[in-house]
Amino acid sequence: GTNPGVDHVPWPAEVAARYRASGHWRGQTFGAWLTALTAAYADRTAVVGERDGNPVRWTFAELDERAHRIAAGLVGRGIRAGDRVVVQLPNVPEFVPAVFGLWRAGAWPVFALPAHRHSELRHFAAQSEAVAILTVDQHERHDHAATARAVAGDVASVREVLVVGSPEFDDLAATAPRELPDPDPAGVAFLQLSGGSTGLPKLIPRTHDDYLYSVRESARICALRPDSVYLAALPVSHNYPLSSPGILGALHAGAATVLAPRPDADTAFRLIESEGVTITGVVPPLAAAWVQAAGRTERDLSTLEVLLVGGAKCGRELAERIGPALGCRLQQVFGMAEGLVCYTRLDDPDEIVLSTQGRPISLDDEIRVVDPDNPSASSADVVAPGEVGALLTRGPYTIRGYYRAAEHNATAFTPDGFYRTGDLVRCAPSGHVEVVGRAKEQINRGGEKVAAEEVENHLMAHPAVLDAAVVAVPDEYLGERTCAYVVPAAGSTPTAAELRRFVRERGVAAFKVPDLVEVVAAFPVTGVGKTSKRELRAALAALAEKG
Ligand code: J2J
Question: Residue ranges of the AMP-binding enzyme C-terminal domain (predicted)?
Fold first, then answer.
């Protein structure tokens, strides 16, 4: 089982008491929340999607009943409160009742992305000691069920693979509902994934109390109302389309969520027109593609009121084109699965919306901008107002530690509980945050996060590779791409194509396969006789920048 205080770091009792007293934490679970929403919005549409090319449309009452049945079915299959279940689902309507079913059963979803492959899923399952994997059969020509079964074969804790759309799952989802004990709202509700910077991605424990606070506030800040229609264009298990304001924000407002099976402009524009979508969220490269496509579409996009853009920096030029091209308001969002989410407000002056990534959700989000050259700067080492520094944060929905990661937590958090985001920011007197760079060893590939060390480790598993360093190189479309510098083992001459194939075949998400591979005779020596990976990456990144 899981051990509170050891596996995950709770907020200090007096801080938790403060968040409760101020009404941020309400002592409500996801299951109880859906029950309350269903009482208020029973016959309104909650979820719209497609299954095998056929439209699916569920009201709140139908969603609620499905979630109850799935919960009962899961319990019938031996899933118990506190069990972890890896969820790897694309944007299918079943995602919503299945996740609420898990919550009602007291189980913790571990949210994998559809792009993840064997190596990542095995890590999530092993790290969380998951008892089951919930996935689909085929998606985008990948056999997810087969990958999940292979992972189940590798990780002893995994007892079963549940496949949405299979007759077995349909049976499970037809189980008679039953009364189940409500889990502890202050306890962990699910594990979200970190973008990662070291080794393998860390797991992020989020509680019912803290997450629902961020969801309610996100729905308010994005002005969702019962007749709003939210399009989930990005993969829904990611924190952004889940909660900023996302599917959950839409549910909170009594609004409908439309799940787009793919995020391309053709699919999105078709759904915006047919469902009257009023708000959606994308990453900058997708916003750029939509802006381009808007010039030649015959689709009616006039219902669209707000386009959120975030996950990576939205440049000024792109920001300026969004409103005119799509006929909607831009809302910038700077968030992280660890917690803190900043939004520009819908009534902010244009200049703020175009040039900043917004301000925090909560007045109780504490922001410290500290000495950027000192990786262990404490929350007291703040830079002068308006100067660039490393962003630290703590607050009512920002974690105090990763799951089962005591050693990593010692450096990822300050002793007084601030999370080191790894982002370099400048803070305006108004509290608006501008993201100007990054201190963490991560590549932000158009919103998809790649940990340099994780890819280096895959490369170094190749017998012809002596050493590898992965850095970001500027890219017109994605903002950044990955470049792997590789020093071959004595006598070896690996090719770029061979190394890229090797990484792919180790079973990793396609977005982690290095875009460029440069085989070099040796790395520049950065220190006196000693090469630090951090300094080496900085030197190589500078080299790549010059081209
Ligand atoms: C620059 N960098 C950004 C932005 C995120 C909403 C929106 C995004 C995420 C997300 C999220 C950025 N400009 N506007 O969880 O709820 C980079 C930063 C940050 C990291 C977090 C949400 N928006 N970033 O992207 O956990 O480097 O969450 O620390 O995937 O993305 O990545 P992730």
Answer: 454-530
